[in-house]
Amino acid sequence: MKLFVKVLNMLLLFAGVAVTVLAQPTASGTNITNTASATFVDSNGANRSTQSNTVTTIVQTVYYVNVEPDTDGTNDINPGTTAGTVDPTAVTDNDFTSNAFASNDLDVASGANAILSYSVENLSNKAVELTLSVAQATTDDYDLSNVKIYVDLNKDNIRDANELYFDGTTSSYPNIASFPNNRLSLPISNGTAGSGTDYYPVYVVGTVPSNQDGNDVALVDLQVTNFTGVNDGAYTPTAKANELFENNNLGRVEVNEIVLIGLAKQAATPTNNGDGTWSVDFTFNLKNYGNVPLTSVNVTDNLATIFAAAQSYTVTALSATGNLTANTPASVNGGSTSLLVPASSSLAKTGDANDTASISMTVKITPSTTAGAATTFSYNNTATATGTSPDSTIDTDVSFNGAATDDGDNDPDDDSSTTPISLTETPVIGVAKQAGTVVDNNNGTFTVPFTIKVENLGNMNLHDVQVTDIIDNEFGTYVATVGNVDATGEYTISGLTVTDATAGTAIAANPNFDGDDDAGDAGLLTVSATSVLEVGQSISIGFNLTFYPDFVNSPFTNQATASGDLPRNADGVADGDTTDLSDDGNTTDTDGDKNPNEAGENDPTGIAVPSDTVIGVAKRVDPSFGTTGYTDNGDGTFTTRFEINVENLGNVDLHDVQVTESLTAEFGTYTALLANVDAAGEYTVSNLAISTNVSNALTANTAGFNGSSDTSLLNVASGGYIKPGQ
Question: What does the DSSP assignment read for 241-269?
């Protein structure tokens, strides 16, 4: 508070002499009397004296009420009677140069109370009763709410409950005892500024709206009106009653900037391109949580650091929404860490349109080109967002993993977490083998068509694909043509085809396939580094197996093995980064879980050969013996010749073949020599032979057969067999 001494100037005129009297304010209505005397020497030289009449002066009422600080930019006492409404043009700059305004130039957070400090002092020569009120400008940015006025009666700088002059409600003055008639009573000035009973601190308290924009300004005026000035009859009062003393006692309340940007970074599920590269879509969500707009907005993401362990990376797409301008993929690929062009990127203040925006970025990653087993490549990263307020305050935020920029407390600064990226190579090949209907060729051989389905069930394209089908272990020896399959345990392959709809990378059949993993080639396919079984793709392999079954090995089963290599291991050699044993049927993964190696999914394929063992035998007299069927030898004996036909009417070789013939029941007693057949009931046997056998080594029992003690026509011990149809 300014220190001052009020100077009361009174001009007294007497005999042409001017006198200035300094005095403490004298109460209005006070009578001041004065008598003057004079001495002189007359013409006769005599000393003479004289005395004037008594002059009475009545002190007029002078109203001076000073309110500090005001807007005159000085520290001088500035009582005044400037009438009218609030004039906010007196204060337009945030930086008041005058000390008179420093105490009431406030920066206050939205939702907080602003406390404006004033002093009201009576400099009048008469006690006054004042009414205090608050006016708010109509040309500023906002109004304080819940405005209250406190008069610090005990001058302890504390706003006590009984010191509340006005509580913010129209015509509501809660403390009548402290303020009779709802007015502030001040006695006549004591002549000392800033102290005494003629002076009180006054506080204006108001609340800044909770959603008020940063840098908005409210102009508040403490207005003082005098309700004193009644003519008491002793003097003529000055016309100061009911007059607004000062109306430019402005306080300036500027809302603090809340500069708060939030950033979230989210990685979508990586897309395996199958060729050893992956594409990852990133989304960066930005939100302005502050009460001021943000300019020079940027998001930095050091991709070179993230993917330092990768073979390479390339930004293939980069875009932004709202008031953001995306950088170019070429710039980011060239080493820039900025995803935006800050000069043309901004976010509106919270609650306004475009207070949120997003960035979309696609990165193509090649984790490794070094040969090796399948693996998982992991990358972790955070991005950083920045924005600048109108007052040039810069806020930064480290990204929060996911789509949300904040965990719900509206303070993104306390939320940050890395965004993980996991690229897992999962090469999976599946194979199923199905046998078609077995055809009986009626010559001891059978032909069965096989269909093998090979499918890429993993997330990596497969190179060096091979299907190995070992045939010889089950079906014997490979021969080159169907015509050569004429003995048990022989087989041949025909009609090998591969159906692959992939253009340019088709997988081809192996023309040398013979199913013999020892001396031949059991690989159905031609292994190639450039031929590809793409993710989700399948091929079909077909071939015919013609075989002469050895039923010692029945029942007959077969199983193929498929394999494939990772793209980075593609070298024309089947290394078997993924393998699978075939399952019976045409489904490579029965339960559809992309794992074809589970129980019940690797069952061998059975080949049902219908075994039919049928032998036929017929006997007749050799037709060359005419109608009688015998020759009369003229000595009481007769000769006849029997022809016995034995045929394999089934579809399998017949071994241990035997034909028995008992002659004694019909012809009597066997005699070893023809010459000894000389009595009735005697017979002998001669010329036992096998006329047709197709070289299967059946032999006649010439040494033992007699139709009596030895009825076997064939020598089983010598081996031999009858093929089907023989």
Answer: TTEEEES--EEEEEEPP---EEEEEEEPP
Contact 134, 85 (CB under 8 A): no
Structure tokens, 289: 């949580």
Residue 606, pLDDT > 90, answer yes
Distance CA(369)–CA(73), nearest Å, equals 76
CB atoms within 10 A of CB 669: 13
Q: Are 564 and 425 in contact (CB under 8 A)?
A: no
Three-class secondary structure assignment of 220-231: EEEEEEECCCCC
Exposure of 176 by Cβ count < 10 A (0-12 exposed, 13-18 middle, 19+ buried)?
Answer: exposed
How far apart (Å, rounded) are the C-alpha atoms in residues 520 and 512?
Answer: 8
Other beta carbons less than 10 A from residue 22's beta carbon: 10
∠ CA 90-96-97, nearest 5°, is 110
Contact status, residue 225 vs residue 244, Cβ threshold 8 Å:
yes
* Nearest of 312, 601, 594 to residue 456 by alpha carbon: 594
Residue in 145, 144, 182, 148 with CA at minimum distance from that of residue 168: 148
CB 219 within 8 A of CB 88: yes
For residue 591 the two structure tokens come to 């339960």
- Model confidence pLDDT, tens digit, residues 311-321: 999 999 999 99
CA 274 to chain CA mean position, Å: 21
How far apart are the C-alpha atoms of 61 and 123, rounded to whole Å? 11
Tokens of 185: 């009573």
DSSP string, 330-392: HHHHTT--BSB-GGG--BPPTTSTTSEEEEEEEEEEE---S-----EEEEEE--EEEEE-TT-
Provide the residue type at 458 as one letter: G
Pair of tokens at residue 135: 């006016």
Task: Give CA–CA dist 380/440, Å, rounded.
Answer: 64
Has residue 78 got a pLDDT over 50? no
Q: Which residues make beta-bridge pairs with 134? A: 222
By DSSP bridging, strand 105-108 and strand 250-255 are: parallel
Confidence at residue 503, expressed as pLDDT on a 0 to 100 scale = 66
The closest alpha carbon to 681, from 640, 635, 637, 628, belongs to 637
Give the chain's largest Cα–Cα span: 240
Helical ranges in 651-724 per DSSP H:
664-667
Q: What average pLDDT does range 436-460 have in this prediction?
A: 94
Consecutive H or E run containing 395: strand 394-398
pLDDT band at 26 (very low <50, low <70, confident <90, very high): confident
DSSP state of 474: H
pLDDT tens by residue, 249-288: 678 899 999 999 999 999 999 998 888 899 999 999 999 9
What pLDDT sits at residue 632?
Answer: 87
Q: pLDDT digit string (tens) for 143-180?
A: 999 999 999 999 999 999 998 988 877 666 788 778 88
Radius of gyration of the chain (CA): 61
- Are 478 and 608 within 8 A, CB to CB? no
Cis peptide before 604 (omega within 30 of 0): no
Across 109-198, where does the E strand assignment appear? 113-122, 128-136, 145-151, 164-166, 184-186
